[in-house]
Amino acid sequence: MNSIERIKNIIATQIRTYRLSKGWTQERLAEEASLAPTFISRIESESRLLSLESLCQIGEALGLEVFELLISAETAKTSDYRKKQLIRIIKKSSPEQIDLYFDLVSALDKKNLKHK
């Protein structure tokens, strides 16, 4: 698989995964991103490489940073990537959300310490 094919595959997989996680059809994503449904279909079937502008529209519609559509599922499962994602989430969170996250992580940490 050459680089272009690999990129098409990653983008198609990520768009499909995030779209399905929201319970959206291709038509709904197309509507949210102001794109044609056939265009979304072609991207997901890897028959079309999209422009940076379209990639941004899709990312925004899905509530994602564009780079999240360019990261393979394997990379997204790594500890380093997940740590970076947690940091990104915390940075954009309100003080109330941070308090909630802190309480949750603290409780999980205490539970893990008891099991050691």
Features:
elongated, 116 residues, mainly alpha
In short:
The protein has 116 residues and is mostly helical. The chain contains seven helices and no strands.
Description:
The protein starts with a helix and ends with a helix. It is an all-alpha fold. The protein is built from 7 helices and no strands. It has helices at residues 3-21, 26-33, 37-44, 52-62, 73-76, 79-91, 95-114. The model has no long low-confidence stretch (mean pLDDT 91). 72% of the residues lie in helices and 0% in strands.
Mass-distribution shape: elongated
Order of helices and strands: HHHHHHH
Spatial gap, N to C terminus: 45 Å
Strand content: under 5%
What's the alpha carbon Rg, rounded to whole Å? 17 Å
Largest sheet: none
- Outline the low-pLDDT stretches: none
Number of strands: 0
Q: Helical region count?
A: 7
Question: What class would the helix/strand composition place it in?
Answer: mainly alpha
Strands, helices and their partners?
Layout: H1 3-21, H2 26-33, H3 37-44, H4 52-62, H5 73-76, H6 79-91, H7 95-114
Helix pairs in contact: 2-3, 2-4
